[in-house]
Structure formats: C-alpha cells, structure tokens
Design a protein that fits this description.
The chain has 3 helices and 21 strands. The protein has helices spanning 211-218, 265-272, 322-330, and strands at residues 33-37, 56-66, 73-82, 92-99, 109-117, 124-125, 128-132, 140-151, 162-169, 173-177, 180-185, 191-199, 204-208, 225-235, 243-253, 256-262, 278-286, 299-306, 316-319, 334-336, 343-348. The chain is elongated.
C-alpha cells in the first residue's frame, strides 16, 4: 500500500462542509404530507386469490396532506382503475392506512377514507382530490400507505368487508401522540454487523458484514481465518448522510492476500487506479466524522490502523475499541484518520 494510507487524512471545512460542526435548532413537529408518482403499469399488480369482483390498481400521482395534526386530510389520487376486463368491481374505497411493519401484513388501521362507488370492467376513477375526516389509530409510530379497497365481504379478514386490492407506501413514517399525527421522517436504515477475523499465518485481520461470507468463514471454507470476538455495526444502505465504503482485494503480495476498506471518495479513486488492488464492492455504509474525529449522537468512532507492511504485505485493522487501538500501536501499527485518535468513520451503536 502506498504511503497515502499511512498518514493522517487532512481535509478542510471549505472543501467538505458536511464535516464541519453545524448548529442544530429544535423544530416543531409538523402535520405530515407527501406525494409521489407511479408508473401506469398493469404488470405491477399481482392478482389476489380472493378477487371475486374487480382488480383494483392505483395509478399516476398519489399524495396526502393533513391540514392540522388533528385532521382533516386531503387525499389526492391520479387514477384508480379496475384492471379486470370482464368483471364489475364491488364498491371501491380509497384510503390512508397505517401499519407497524413496512408492509401491510396482519393488523392495519384505516385513518382516512373516501367511498367512490363501483367500477365497470377496465373503467377508472380520477383524478380526484377529497378532503375527509381523520380517525386516529392507537398511539405509536407507523408506516403510512395509500390503499385501494374493494367491498368483498367474507373474502378477507377485514371486519367491514373491504379487502385491500392495491397499495402504495410513502417514504416517511408518521407518529401518533394523544391522537394527533406528526411526520416522523423516513425509517432508520437497516443495520448489519461487521465481524472481525484473524489469520495466524498471515498475521492479518479481516472484516466482513456479508452474511454469506460470514457463514463460509465460520464453516472453515477459508482456511486459517477465525473470529477474534470483535465486531461493530454498520448500515447496509445510505442514511442520507452516509458514505459508501469501498472494498478492495489484493493478491499481489502472495502467498498473502489482503483487503482494504475506505469511506473516502478520493482514496477509493486512488486505489481503483492501483493495479495491485481489485475493487470488489461497496461493502457497507458509514458516516464521516468531523475534522476533530468526533461523531454525531447515536454513532461511535471507527478507527483504522495500518501495519506498515510488517508482515510483508499491507494490512489494516478496523475497530471501535480504544483498547484494541492501543494494543496495535504498541505493536508498531500506525493510526489513520481524523482527530487525535485517528477516526475514519462513525458507525451506529
């Protein structure tokens, strides 16, 4: 590895404003609203097993807007169609409903609705914009959906006989407190665990958050690698303020091999241009610390240490433990990153 990775990474607030401390101001929770556009694509809808009437599908623009946190709410819908070419639908209902899980399995609560009548074969309603009352669900945090319901009593678990034919899930969740409804922002990105392994013969460390790779390592498919007992959390998707971590692999130091991870775009570009290293994937996502190596609340610093080629091949160790960091420094490893301890990233607690 070139000396690029053996020195402290320096950046300025002028070049990377995202790394500079930003004053945060408390904001009053707002009444939720959202809109999105759907393709007019009949193949998007999977026929229901209990479809005894029409086959409803939501098309074009959909949206909603609560006038206050206690309602009422405006429902906007470009089009709701009967995809059946032969059968008239039951009574059609469009409504907002909430679920505790990302998809509507099990219990759901309809919080606003508008009944539209029946639809003949291949007919549609829309565009429509209806302002309707808000019926609060139990307090909690929910995923919010726009649904197309059809009256098919006895063919679904709904007590009122309206079965869900199609739905659209909005990006932001909602929170209900004492019956009032507020915007709760997007759900937190999913978290995975990066597990650390050690190879005695190489005197190398390796981390991975890929579940299939972890299973193979634990099963002994890659000889010599064993768990160290150390691990840390990472995001599997972008948080909106995250950096994808480039993963590289090299066999240019045979018989030893090595991996390298970096969350820095310029470092990723540099290594991509080095023929000794092969880009493998975006391994996971992290947030970047500020120039002092500090991380935002709910995260902890990730430290990177470089073996300075002591094993005859480059190797890095990634850890959230200051104790491990100290041990590696005592063995002659070099810290890399921001601040006095060399933090390269911030990972979820």
């Amino acid at each position: 590895m070139t000396s690029t990775f053996a020195v402290l990474l320096r950046r300025t607030c002028v070049l990377l404003l995202a790394l500079c401390p930003i004053a945060l101001h408390a904001q009053t929770p707002s009444a939720p609203s959202s809109n999105q556009t759907l393709p007019r694509d009949a193949a998007r809808i999977a026929p229901k097993a209990y479809n005894v009437g029409g086959a409803l599908a939501i098309r074009d623009d959909v949206g909603y807007a609560f006038q206050t946190t206690s309602g009422p709410v405006r429902i906007d819908l470009g089009r709701i169609t009967n995809e059946s070419a032969t059968t008239t639908s039951g009574t059609v209902r469009v409504g907002l409903f909430v679920t505790a899980e990302p998809t509507p399995v099990g219990t759901y609560h309809v919080i606003a609705r508008s009944d539209l009548g029946t639809l003949g074969p291949s007919q549609f309603f829309g565009p429509l914009s209806h302002t309707v009352p808000y019926t609060p669900p139990p307090d909690g945090t929910y995923y919010l959906h726009m649904g197309a319901f059809e009256y098919e009593p006895g063919f679904c678990v709904s007590s009122d006989g309206y079965c869900l034919d199609d739905y659209v899930t909005f990006a932001n969740r909602v929170q209900v407190v004492n019956g009032q409804i507020f915007d709760a922002g997007p759900p937190a990105p999913p978290i995975a665990t990066a597990v650390e392994y050690y190879h005695t013969g190489f005197n190398h460390y390796f981390i991975t958050s890929f579940t299939n790779e972890i299973a193979l390592l634990d099963a002994g498919q890659f000889q010599g690698w064993v768990r160290t007992g150390r691990q840390f959390n990472v995001w599997t998707t972008d948080t909106g303020n995250a950096s994808g971590v480039c993963r590289f692999f090299s066999t240019s130091f045979a018989p030893k091999s090595s991996h390298f991870y970096t969350p820095f775009a310029d470092e990723c570009t540099t290594v991509r241009g080095n023929r000794d290293w092969q880009f493998e994937a975006i391994a996971f996502y992290v947030e970047l610390p500020n120039l002092n190596g500090n991380c935002a609340g709910g995260t902890t610093p990730l430290y990177r240490l470089y073996n300075n080629g002591q094993s005859g091949a480059p190797n890095h160790r990634y850890t959230t433990s200051l104790e491990v960091r100290t041990q590696m420094l005592q063995q002659g490893w070099i810290p890399e990153g921001y601040g006095p301890f060399g933090a390269i990233a911030c990972v979820p607690l």
